[in-house]
């Protein structure tokens, strides 16, 4: 007797295992963020950055499970006239094991948005206030955005109020704006409200560089993120097997389109940033190249299945080329101390890449097509709606955190470092001079500061490495 196999059941099983696998890849972006941000702060603040990154994930998934995921469904129903509101249905996933894989897929995206913020406010924000912001990000600020843009319901979808007016839905495949621009804008607003680090601007208001302590960690973190990004983008193509006419069809073309644009976008972003940094500064800067690589990835994240391969190259290249000049504008004109440049990498790159999608549209056979004026208008409107919500919601969250906890540590605590003042530890105790270690003050060295941590300094019979 032949074994009877249901193609639909096989496709469902394979697709769910695929979703779990890519979620694990997306989780791997967390250590990428931790390394990237740690490398770009002073040694005395590394432990604090690591603590914030762990909190983003651990506290964030609890909050997103208890309320955040339901908020997405509620917001979607409230902004879509074709979808009735049901609070019970919105929370049904909590006791439905068959919904847990889908919930987890949403959760890893939510944690990415929340984690982005920490890189902007590093080095001076109170941990207690940051914890409050994490709760706000994963309970309300981020969840509202997939609610209006994804899942077939919500304000910006074809069935939503705006979608019905324009006759089309918003295109953001894996979250260039829904995830990354939300995180980048929230970080920018937070950095503005917390204020710059001491010494970031001189008495005349001119910016003064504060180098991070490890280029190695920053670049390794970038490459970890790039690896996880394949889960982020390619994983959003969640159907790898489709049941068609009683048989199974592998969706290789759709997967190939996404993986190709992801790869070309990051390459173009890095090369463009290398060229711009070499022209701007006289020599190519590895950190700007790393940021350009990430900006290229962000720019194509919403576009990967919708644009031609050369469209992916152009979008990634534009985002990478704009990283350095946009960062200078944020620091020099807006006077905002965005430590890790999260706005230029995640915010502006996500907006630009998503708005321009219709100009580089791809046909089913891989050819070129303009996606239409209405689609272009919808892309602009969608970016404005998501950006406006994020800015005002973040202002409210940081304002409440300020009223309850205060946003930043004291000048003395900032000088000592947040590792010591907020957590009572030092990430690099071997680099603390003996007299400071014995006094219980765990801070980085005061003289001979090197950005790479490789220099050593002799004083009498003492020898220690000093870090920025």
Explained architecture:
The chain has 18 helices and 4 strands. The chain has 468 residues and is mainly α. It has a single domain, classed as Ammonium transporter fold (Orthogonal Bundle). The strands form 2 sheets. A two-stranded antiparallel ribbon has the order 1-2. The protein has a two-stranded antiparallel ribbon with strand order 3-4. Helix 1 (7-27) packs parallel to helix 5 (100-118) and helix 11 runs antiparallel to helix 12 (286-301). The longest helix has 33 residues, at 46-78.
Mind telling me which CATH architecture this is? Orthogonal Bundle
Measured as a percent range, the helix fraction is 55-70%
According to CATH, what is the topology? Answer: Ammonium transporter fold
How many extended strands? 4
Percent of residues in β-strands:
under 5%
Order of helices and strands: HHHHHHHHHHEEHHHHHHHHEE
Q: Order of strands across the biggest sheet? A: 1-2
Report the uncertain regions: 437-468
Major β-sheet annotation: 2 strands, antiparallel
How do the helices and strands line up, and which of them pair or pack?
Blueprint: H1 7-27, H2 29-39, H3 46-78, H4 87-90, H5 100-118, H6 127-141, H7 144-149, H8 161-166, H9 176-194, H10 215-234, E1 241-244, E2 247-250, H11 252-281, H12 286-301, H13 309-333, H14 342-355, H15 373-404, H16 411-416, H17 418-423, H18 434-438, E3 456-459, E4 462-465
Antiparallel strand pairs: 1-2, 3-4
Helix pairs in contact: 1-5, 1-10, 2-3, 2-5, 2-10, 3-5, 3-6, 5-6, 5-9, 6-15, 9-14, 9-15, 10-11, 10-12, 11-12, 11-13, 12-13, 12-14, 13-14
């Amino acid at each position: 007797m032949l074994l009877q196999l249901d193609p639909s059941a096989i496709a469902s099983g394979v697709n769910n295992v695929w979703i779990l696998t890519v979620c694990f890849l997306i989780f791997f972006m967390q250590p990428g963020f931790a390394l990237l941000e740690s490398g770009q702060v002073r040694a005395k603040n590394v432990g604090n950055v690591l603590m914030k990154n762990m909190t983003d994930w651990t506290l964030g998934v609890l909050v997103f499970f208890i309320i955040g995921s339901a908020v997405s469904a509620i917001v979607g129903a409230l902004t879509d006239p074709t979808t009735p509101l049901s609070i019970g249905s919105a929370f049904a996933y909590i006791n439905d094991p068959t919904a847990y894989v889908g919930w987890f897929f949403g959760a890893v995206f939510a944690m990415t948005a929340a984690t982005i913020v920490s890189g902007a406010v590093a080095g001076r924000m109170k941990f207690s206030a940051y914890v409050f912001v994490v709760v706000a990000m994963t309970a309300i600020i981020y969840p509202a955005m997939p609610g209006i843009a994804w899942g077939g319901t919500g304000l910006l979808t074809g069935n939503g109020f705006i979608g019905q007016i324009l006759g089309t839905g918003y295109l953001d495949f894996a979250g260039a704006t829904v995830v990354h621009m939300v995180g980048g804008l929230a970080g920018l607003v937070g950095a503005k409200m917390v204020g710059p680090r001491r010494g970031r601007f001189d008495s005349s208001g001119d910016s003064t560089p504060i180098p991070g302590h490890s280029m190695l960690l920053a670049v390794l973190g970038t490459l970890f993120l790039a690896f996880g990004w394949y889960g982020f983008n390619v994983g959003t193509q969640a159907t790898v097997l489709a049941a068609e006419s009683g048989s199974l069809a592998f969706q290789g073309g759709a997967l190939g389109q996404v993986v190709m644009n992801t790869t070309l976008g990051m390459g173009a972003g890095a090369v463009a940033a290398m060229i711009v940094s070499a022209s701007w500064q006289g020599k190519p800067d590895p950190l700007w190249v790393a940021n350009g690589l990430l900006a290229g990835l962000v720019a194509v994240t919403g576009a990967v299945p919708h644009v031609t391969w050369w469209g992916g190259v152009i979008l990634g290249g534009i985002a990478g080329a704009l990283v350095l000049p946009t960062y200078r504008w944020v620091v020099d004109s807006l006077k905002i101390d965005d430590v890790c440049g999260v706005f230029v990498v995640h915010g502006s790159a996500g907006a630009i890449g998503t708005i321009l999608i219709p100009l580089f549209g791809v046909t089913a056979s891989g050819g070129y097509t303009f996606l239409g004026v209405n689609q272009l208008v919808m892309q602009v409107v969608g970016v404005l709606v998501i950006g406006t919500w994020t800015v005002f919601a973040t202002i409210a969250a940081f304002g409440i955190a300020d009223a309850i906890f205060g946003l930043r540590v004291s000048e003395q605590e900032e000088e000592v470092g947040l590792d010591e003042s907020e957590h009572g530890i030092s990430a690099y105790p071997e680099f603390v001079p003996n007299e400071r270690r014995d006094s219980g003050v765990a801070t980085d060295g005061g003289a001979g500061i090197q950005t790479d941590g490789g220099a050593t300094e002799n004083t009498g019979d003492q020898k220690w490495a000093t870090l920025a």
